[in-house]
Amino acid sequence: MAWLSRPLTLVGLVILAHGCYSAYEHTLLASTSVQHPASPSAAALPLDIYIETIVATFLICLGLVLGTGAPEPIQWHTWAGKIEREADKRSSLAGNADKEALGNPYNALEARSGFINIHKLHGDFVKYTQQLSK
Amino acid sequence: MSEQELQINPIVQDSVIHNTKTLTNLHSLTASLFGVSAGILGLESYYGFLYYIALSITTSLLFYVFKLAPGSLAEGRSVLDTGRYYKGALELWTSPIFNGLPGFILTWTLFYGLVRA
Amino acid sequence: MAQIPPQTLHRDPQLFYWILIPITIVMVLTGVLRHYASVLMATTPKKADIKAIREQRALAHGAALRTNYHVLSRKSFETRRDFLIEGFESGAYLKAPNQKGQPPANPMTDPNAMEGMMGMMKNNMAMIIPNTLIMSWINAFFSGYVIMKLPFPITIKFKSMLQAGVQTKDMDPRWMSSISWYFLCIFGLQFVYVFLLGSDNAASQIAQQMQAQQMPVGPMAPGQDPSKMFKAEAENLAVIEHYSVLDGIEERLLERIKV
To answer: Can you tell me which residues the record assigns to a coiled coil (chain C) (predicted)?
Structure first.
């Protein structure tokens, strides 16, 4: 739907500009041709300019609404579920490269990479390689 | 909502700001356009403001239909319930009206002056 | 009863080209300029002394514990509280523990405090200088012209404001002079800035003033005795009645999944 936004707004702006020009010409004509330009009947616009302007306004409004960004849920649990799901989708598409950057903002706290016992991991790795070589 | 309830179901402040900003920007742009069209139509006094209020509510309605409804209906909320994205219903329907009003008056006056007077 | 015919004025279209359009363009450009000036003048935060940072962070730590205690269990909350209160009361986090009782230094002589004031001054200047300049420019060049008619009627009280410099008694107050177009521009140009500069711009004066009013007082307001602030924070922490969000979680969970 988002691709519709720009064309709709553009078409609406063109129609609005045309309506503006028509209205201007109409009032100019009315004020020069009639002797008493103050009379209210001469100042009334023809119906098609009304319709044109209102349709144009509606089109631009629709285009602008379609072009705005999507809102975010404000409840924490819906929001967190949404970003986790998006992160899953994206990481399954594009490998595991930037999984930390997306998803749960507290991933760093969940993983606690500062608390990893490197020596123990190294010992495990040595045992593993010894098992393999057997 | 009591304080304790708010602590049990916390609210994402960033999302609130993001949503409000999205709505405000949309309305300040559309309000100026409504001013242009009100000026072209040559509306005066009450009719101009009524036109603005009606169109502004229409914009909010369109925003609800295209942007809010898919998410909030999928969540099982009833129609026109905006609780998923806004704290109160007034935030969507009325507060943008006052936001866009200065821009509306500016363009209304300008185009009224250009086309009519 | 005969209706009073609306007043009509024949105005030279040149008024539009030489008054309305210049004022509008100048107003838009001022807003854009103000935005970029505020971007350029934003000062990078200065490197602070490690002791000063520790003092600020300890206070922020206390405030964070005070506002978020409900996510901690009772035991861990009490451990944290006791630790912080002890530190606060003994003055372990003070920048200069030996000048505890002395009155705070004059903010005018303290270079750090001066820095903050300069920032505020700059902000105010960015608002005041263009305003006075443009006001006097409009008054000097464009006063005395009637350029527009408002599309809605207003009371006679506005006449002196909208028709400044036009001394015509019987004219409808809806007719407005160039200075009132300037006021309309001040209030109504927000949408142009949204369109040109994106949503979080610094161009609009109205938005900036609202921001300045809502600005919270920083944790270290200049001219306050930090040891007293620590004492107050310790007291605040001591009176908290702890509860956890997990209290009664079982009932709530069962409530939610009940068929």
So the answer is: none
